[in-house]
Each structure stands twice: as C-alpha cells, then as structure tokens.
C-alpha cells in the first residue's frame, strides 16, 4: 500500500526529470563523442595517407620492374635478331661468292644453316622467282610483289630488312622475314635472301609468368612500323595485334600507365629501342597484377579503419550514455528524484551569472521543523515517506517553471527568477506555508508539519552561489527561531544583520572555546538562609572572567552556551568546583548545609549528568541529600524518556531535584502536584510585589501553604527588603535567598567556619 503510494508520488515527480534535463549544464558529456570523432578522423587520415604512400610505392616498383624487364628483353631480342641476321649474312656471302654452285638444300642437310629459329631459308631471284628454298617440295612461287623484294630491288643500301609477319607462300605459316639484298659482282640486283622466322620465338622464349604475371605483355615492333610479335599472359604469342602505330605514342615511355588498345588492359609499360637493329621492345605489367598486393593492403586498411571507427563510435556512445546516466545520478536526489545540491549549485551559478545582481533571482530555503523527531520516533522509513510527500506537495506548489531541489535531509530549495523576485519569493513562501496547513497522512495517522523558510535575493555582485545559499540558510534559522515558540510555520528574508549575528555567534563560539580551555570560569555562592539570617545552604553561580570584558554574569553567556552545547563542559566545571569547595566547608563547619547547583536542560539531554554527579559525590564524599540540583520547568515537563530516566536516576541516588524560577514560565500548580520533584524555588518576580501587591502576596501565601502540604522544600528568591522579611515571618520558618541577606560572593567571603 505504502509502496504503491510512493510509486504514485514518484511518477508525479517524473516530469522533473525532463525539467532537470533543461537545467543541466551544456558542457556535460559532449566531449566524449567529440574525442571519438577526432580519433576516427585521425585514423582515417592516417589510413588514407598510408594507402596513398603504398600506392605510390607500388606504382614506382611496378614501373621500375618494367624498365628492368625491358632492358633484359631488349638484350634477348638483340641476340635473337643477331642470330637470324647471321644466317642471312652467311647465305648472302656464300651465294654472292658463287651463285652457280650455291646449294641451299645441301647446306641445309648438313645442318649448316638451320638456326634454331629459322623456319625456312629462301633465295629469291632478281625477277622474284624462288630459286632455292629449304622447305622440301616448296612451291615455285613468285615473290616480286613482296615488300622486302621491292625495297631491296630499289635500294642497294637497305641492309637487313625485317618484314611484317606474313603468311608464308612457301611455308604456309606465319613468318617473320629477315631479308638482305643479293648482289651480282657488279653490284646489280641479284635477288633477295629470305630467312623466315617464327614470330612466336621472339616473345615466347622470354615470357615468364612469375615476373610478368598472367596479364603481362611483351611486344616487339619494327622501326618500319610493324608489330612483329606480341604475347600476353597465358596466350600464345601472335603477330596479330594492333598496328604498331598504336604503340607509337609509347616511344621513350618508362613505366608509363597505358591502356592497351587490343585487350584494354591497363599496364605499366616501358619502351626500349635496340640500338643495333631497327626494332624496339615493349614490356607491360598489368596494373591490376602489379597493384594486387597494394589493393589487398588497401582493403585491409579500409576495413581496419572502418572496424576501429565502429568500435570507437560504439564505445563512445556507450560511455556517453553511461556518463549521462551517472551524471543524472550525481545530480538527482535518489529518494525524491528531484535535483540535488550539486545540480542546484551548478544551476544557481549559471543563473546568477546570467542575471547578475539584478534582484531578479531569489531562493527559498525550506526546512521541516522537528523532522529529526519524526525520524527518531516513527523510523526512517516513515521519514522517507514524509519526505516524498513533502517533495510532491512542494512540486505542486512550485509549478513547472521553477527549480525545486532537495539539498539535504529535510531541506528543500526553490529558485525564483522573476522581475520582482523578492516579492514573488515572499508570495511563494506564503503559498508553501499554506500548503503545509494540510496534515500529512502516514500509516493511518495525520501529522501537521511546520516549515521554516529563509529567503535570499541575489542583489550583491560579490555573492556566489554558496553565499546565496548561506544567506537563505541564515534567514531560515531566523524564521525557525521566530516560529519555534508558537510551533508555527514562518518565513524570513535575509538581511545583513543576520550575517552579523552569525559572525558574532562564531566569535562567541571561539571565545567560549578558549574560555573553557583557559579555565576562565569561576564560582560565586549566594547564601540560602532562614528569616533570621542563619545559613542553611549556598547556591553556586557561575561567572566568566573574560580577559577583556571583565567579569560576565550568566545572563550574558549561558543562553549561548546552551545553544552551542558548551554548557555541558561549563556545567561539569561548576559541579566539580562546587563539590570541591563544599567538601572543604564540611570539614570545618558542622552545620548541615546544602549545596545548590543549576543544571541546564541541555545537560540533561546531551551530557551525562548522572555519571558526573555520582562521581563527584563519591570523590568528595558528599551525602547525596545535601546536593540540590536546580532545574527549570522545561526540564521537569520534558516528556522524553531520556530526561525522565536521568532525573529518576538522580533522585534514586538521593540527590534532591528543585524546580527553579517557579512562576516565570508556564508555572501551573498542578505541576507541583504531579511532578517528581523535591522542592520549589519561587522566582523573585513574585517576591518583588510583596507586600505591596495583593495578588503577589496572595499567591505567595498559597504557594507556601501548598508546598508545605505537599511536603516539598521551599526557597523564596529575591528577598531584598526588611518589609519582605517582616511579611514572610508570619509563615514561621521560611528559607529565603536574596540581596537583603547577601549577594553572590566568592567562596572565601561566605560566613563559614574555617580551619584556623
Ligand atoms: P537563578 O538560578 O535563579 O539564580 C539566582 C539569580 O538571582 C542570580 O543571578 C542571583 O544573583 C540573582 N539574585 C539573587 N537574589 C537576588 C535579589 O534579591 N534581587 C535580584 N535582583 N537578584 C537576585 P545570576 O547569578 O546572574 O544568575 C542568573 C541565572 O543564571 C541563574 O538564575 C541561573 O538560572 C543561571 N545560572 C547561574 N549559574 C549557573 C550555572 O552554573 N549553571 C546553569 N545552568 N545556570 C546558571
Ligand atoms: Mg538557581
Ligand atoms: Mg532562580
């Protein structure tokens, strides 16, 4: 049931979370994704730079390989052409020496002219007819239309001529023809010697898959513009290909990228001319093959960069969410879900910076009265339930636009930002107080809770958020002080006087602390006597010998000593000192005197009076019934178990408890009847009116009669005049205390018998 209720309250407070979101400072956690993105950008830049560098290196390497390959390929071709030319030259030489006896078939049979490469050797006569050929059964054909024939016929200086690959009419195969002119002794045209070669031989012998790859390319072109042989990859070499003109633009190329017009493969290409012969070689390495390793690395780099980016983004997202949650937790009060002190101070700082000391910002500092009592008596669970209900009620009052925070156990703060913030805050405080007029129902019981509200307005440029909180806190304490006696809710607005008072309090606090350490307290004793002046006892009264202010009376420091708690230590000193003095007198003065000591309510609630008293009685061997502890009415009326048991314990120990200052507080005669006390001291305010004031005299008369009837001891304080003594004498034996007999005096001045 209670859980369901608190759930309801929680959900009622839910929209706070949204409001809190708005109030949260912007800085928060955005730096996390920012750092992640910066990291990702640098990873990508590094990856791209690396890829580009590797790409450049791979291209340079590939280009250099083609240059190297072209160099060795050109050496290979130079040798091949040289071999073929050697055959041509030899046949030419032999034939020209003796055309009549030159027998090609015979040389061939003897293996003299069959170079590895030569498919066929043919002697063509001056009119183009084939005169001799190594091809057995070669057809009788006329080759006068062949280009080599025409060139050699026309130009005696043509030298070695390498023809375009042709389908041999004699050999019926694709052949490359190495030709030289045959001369008659007179230099006239005698025909042509033709050595036919298989064009494949030029390139096949050199092609190597390891170095050139499956898409590499080797080509040989002649200066007269023919493609002599070309091979790519696994295919056979072929003389068929693009016109050599297509490769013309490659003249001088060294590792240049070129898209081959035949197979459209892009290659790194190097061109190299062979100096001794009218041929050039071209070596091409497929761009795809040459860059395969690089491409692989590139993919790897890209994938790695992508994976790292995704991981970083995920991690950043996760951390951002977690940090956001943690920040939320750090800024939210876990019980009520309201903003906590941390978020309040942060918001306050930002709002104070934004508004400046314009009186546009005010703060309500709300504290529940007696919350500690509820917690102590009803338990913390109920305390929490009350706080939740209070939070809910305050949230209703505050509305959605203002910040409500819980900054401590039972302390709530509301921020008011408005044109006339001071007035608005005062109005709001009234509304809050009104809201607390309705009781809170918990576990079937109704509880009326009072609040004390302090208001502080941001007027001063030097104030910071903590200063403003302190001001509101001081005002709240002032409200609590004014509200307390009547047990009502109050609000109070901060004024500099409150700070001064607080400062003064701090100074007094310091002074008292020093006073205790430096033993600045001493005792005076006021005799308690019979009407004829015979000493019956003394009351110990404390004095403060202040180093600069002189001797201070109790009225000047006891209230503060009580509120600050120092009264406990002061009280212990008084007890000790008085007992010590009393012991001395007892040793020398035989009269059964009593010792009265004042005990503050604070000593009974916080100190350990019982132990201190019994220790002193033991230490100084004082009969318990000689000691009279004077307590105020608030003490004997206190219903708390603690005070009651302590008073009982003291009485059981034999100590007398006297009700001091009777007639000043709520003094009611019934108290005299009901309370467990041993005697009464009637305050001097009663005595003052005697005998002139009839009412006072009548009251005193009755009180004397009543205490006697009840068997209580009685001391009449403040007897100052002869008339008062005379009036009192009608009651027979009365115990009195007053300036008429003696003011409080130092121990040495008491009329007590002393050792000689
Ligand atoms: P009290 O316990 O009622 O003490 C009597 C006070 O009345 C004393 O003031 C005393 O000087 C004053 N008095 C006595 N006869 C007369 C008289 O004929 N005319 C007038 N006008 N005054 C008279 P004192 O010493 O200033 O003490 C004031 C109060 O301070 C005490 O009132 C007592 O309540 C408190 N007090 C004093 N000493 C202690 C102490 O050691 N502990 C505590 N807790 N309170 C103390
Ligand atoms: Mg007293
Ligand atoms: Mg008194």
Mind explaining what this structure looks like?
With 756 residues, the protein is an alpha+beta fold. The chain folds into 3 domains: 2-21 and 326-494, Alpha-Beta Plaits; 26-323, PAS domain (Beta-Lactamase, 2-Layer Sandwich), CATH 3.30.450; 513-749, EAL domain (TIM Barrel, Alpha-Beta Barrel). Helix content is 47%, strand content 21%. The chain has 25 helices and 27 strands. The strands form 5 sheets. The protein has an 8-stranded mixed barrel. Strands 1, 2, 3, 4, 5 and 6 form a 6-stranded antiparallel β-sheet that branches. A hairpin with a 5-residue loop joins strand 5 and strand 6 (189-197). Helix 1 (2-12) runs parallel beside helix 12 (380-398) and helix 17 (567-588) runs parallel beside helix 19 (609-619). The structure holds ligand C2E and magnesium ion (2 copies). Residues 539, 598, 630, 660 line the site of one magnesium ion.
Topology:
Layout: H1 2-12, H2 14-23, H3 31-97, H4 104-109, E1 118-124, E2 130-133, H5 147-154, E3 161-162, E4 166-167, E5 174-183, E6 189-197, H6 200-204, H7 209-212, E7 217-222, E8 227-232, E9 254-259, E10 266-273, E11 279-286, H8 287-290, H9 292-331, H10 341-355, E12 361-368, H11 371-378, H12 380-398, E13 404-408, E14 411-417, H13 421-435, E15 440-442, E16 445-447, E17 451-457, H14 465-483, E18 490-493, H15 496-517, E19 521-530, E20 535-546, E21 550-552, H16 554-564, H17 567-588, E22 594-598, H18 601-605, H19 609-619, E23 627-631, H20 633-637, H21 641-652, E24 656-662, H22 669-674, E25 679-682, H23 684-688, H24 694-710, E26 713-716, H25 722-728, E27 735-736
Parallel strand pairs: 17-18, 20-22, 22-23, 23-24, 24-25, 25-26, 26-27
Antiparallel strand pairs: 1-2, 1-6, 3-5, 4-5, 5-6, 7-8, 7-11, 9-10, 10-11, 12-14, 12-17, 13-14, 15-16, 19-20, 19-27, 20-21
Helix pairs in contact: 1-12, 3-9, 11-12, 12-13, 17-19, 19-21
Bound molecules: ligand C2E and magnesium ion (MG) (2 copies).
One magnesium ion (MG) binds next to strand 24.
């Amino acid at each position: 049931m209670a859980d369901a209720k608190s759930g309801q309250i929680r959900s009622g407070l839910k929209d706070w979370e949204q409001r809190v979101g708005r109030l949260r400072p912007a800085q928060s956690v955005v730096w996390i994704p920012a750092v992640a993105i910066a990291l990702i950008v640098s990873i990508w830049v590094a990856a791209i730079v690396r890829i580009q560098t590797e790409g450049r290196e791979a291209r340079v390497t590939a280009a250099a390989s083609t240059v190297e390959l072209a160099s060795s390929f050109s050496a290979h071709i130079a040798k091949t052409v040289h071999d073929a030319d050697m055959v041509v030259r030899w046949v030419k030489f032999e034939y020209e020496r003796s055309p009549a006896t030159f027998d090609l078939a015979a040389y061939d049979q003897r293996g003299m002219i069959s170079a590895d490469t030569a498919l066929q050797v043919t002697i063509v006569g001056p009119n183009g007819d084939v005169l001799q050929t190594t091809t057995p059964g070669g057809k009788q054909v006329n080759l006068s239309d062949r280009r080599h024939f025409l060139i050699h016929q026309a130009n005696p200086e043509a030298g070695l001529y390498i023809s375009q690959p042709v389908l041999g009419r004699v050999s019926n195969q694709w052949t490359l023809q190495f030709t030289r002119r045959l001369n008659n002794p007179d230099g006239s045209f005698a025909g042509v010697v033709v050595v036919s070669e298989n064009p494949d031989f030029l390139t096949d012998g050199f092609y190597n898959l390891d170095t050139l790859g499956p898409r590499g390319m080797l080509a040989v072109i002649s200066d007269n513009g023919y493609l002599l042989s070309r091979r790519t990859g696994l295919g056979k070499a072929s003389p068929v290909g693009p016109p050599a003109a297509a490769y013309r633009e490659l003249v001088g190329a060294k590792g240049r990228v070129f898209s081959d017009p035949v197979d459209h493969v892009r290659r790194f290409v190097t061109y190299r001319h062979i100096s001794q012969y009218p041929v050039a070689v071209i070596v091409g390495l497929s761009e795809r093959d040459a860059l395969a390793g690089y491409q692989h690395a590139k993919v790897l780099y890209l994938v790695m960069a992508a994976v790292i980016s995704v991981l970083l983004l995920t991690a950043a997202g996760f951390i951002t969410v977690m940090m956001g949650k943690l920040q939320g937790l750090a800024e939210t009060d876990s019980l009520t879900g309201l903003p906590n002190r941390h978020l309040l101070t942060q918001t306050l700082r930002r709002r104070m910076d934004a508004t400046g000391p314009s009186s546009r910002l005010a703060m309500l500092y709300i504290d529940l009265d007696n919350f500690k009592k509820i917690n102590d008596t009803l338990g913390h669970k109920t305390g929490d339930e009350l706080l939740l209900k209070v939070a809910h009620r305050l949230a209703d009052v505050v509305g959605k636009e203002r910040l409500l925070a819980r900054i401590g156990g039972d302390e709530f703060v509301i921020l008011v930002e408005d044109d006339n913030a001071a007035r608005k805050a005062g109005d709001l405080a009234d509304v809050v107080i009104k809201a607390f007029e309705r009781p809170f129902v918990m576990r079937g019981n109704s509880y009326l809770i009072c609040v004390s509200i302090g208001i502080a307005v941001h007027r001063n440029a030097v104030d910071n958020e903590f200063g403003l909180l302190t001001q509101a806190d001081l005002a709240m304490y002032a409200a609590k002080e004014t509200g307390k006696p009547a047990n009502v809710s109050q609000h109070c607005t901060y004024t500099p006087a409150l700070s001064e008072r607080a400062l003064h309090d701090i100074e007094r606090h310091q002074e008292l602390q020093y006073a205790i350490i430096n033993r600045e307290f001493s005792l005076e004793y006021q005799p308690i006597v019979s009407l004829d002046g015979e000493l019956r006892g003394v009351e110990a009264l404390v004095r403060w010998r202040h180093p600069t202010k002189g001797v201070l009376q109790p009225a000047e420091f006891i209230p503060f000593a009580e509120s600050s708690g120092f009264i406990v230590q002061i009280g212990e000193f008084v007890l000790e000192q008085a007992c010590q003095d009393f012991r001395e007198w007892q040793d020398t003065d035989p009269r059964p005197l009593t010792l009265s000591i004042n005990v503050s309510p604070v000593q009974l609630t916080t100190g350990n009076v019982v132990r201190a008293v019994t220790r002193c009685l033991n230490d100084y061997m004082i009969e318990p019934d000689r000691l009279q502890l004077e307590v105020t009415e608030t003490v004997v009326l206190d219903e708390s178990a603690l005070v009651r048991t302590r008073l009982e314990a003291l009485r059981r120990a034999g100590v007398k408890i006297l009700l001091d200052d009777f007639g000043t507080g709520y003094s009611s005669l019934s108290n005299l009847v009901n309370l467990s006390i041993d005697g009464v001291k009637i305050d001097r305010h009663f005595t003052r009116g005697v005998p002139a004031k009839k009412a006072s005299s009548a009251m005193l008369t009755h009180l004397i009669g009543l205490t006697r009837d009840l068997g209580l001891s009685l001391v009449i304080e403040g007897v100052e005049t002869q008339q008062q003594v005379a009036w009192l004498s009608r009651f027979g034996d009365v115990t009195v205390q007053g300036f008429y007999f003696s003011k409080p005096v130092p121990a040495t001045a008491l009329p007590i018998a002393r050792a000689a």
